[in-house]
Design a protein that fits this description.
It is a single chain. The protein is mainly α and 86 residues long. The protein has one domain.
Length: 86
């Protein structure tokens, strides 16, 4: 078998495999995440709600005073001490 024929067979097999995977994925509905507040076994705390809000802001959260305070509180809770002043 020539290398050209082998390459064509491999390319055709890859295309068939890609189509098969796409067909199998389209059979399943997309996964949606359940908000933490809606789950029965997880109670969302006010601190977690603030952190989720800041996370939803993305890069704008770096200038938001409430987010800066929430991140400072989280750092203090995690490390147990205030961050050294610069």
């Amino acid at each position: 078998m020539s290398s050209r024929l082998s390459f064509r067979l491999a390319a055709a097999a890859f295309a068939v495999l890609a189509i098969l995977v796409a067909a199998l994925q389209s059979r399943h509905p997309p996964m949606t995440s359940t908000p933490a507040a809606a789950t029965k076994d997880h109670v969302i705390t006010p601190h977690a709600a603030r952190m989720a809000h800041c996370q939803s802001l993305g890069a704008a959260g770096a200038q938001d005073p409430d987010c800066l305070k929430a991140w400072d509180d989280a750092r203090t809770r995690f490390l147990g001490a205030k961050k050294a002043e610069r």
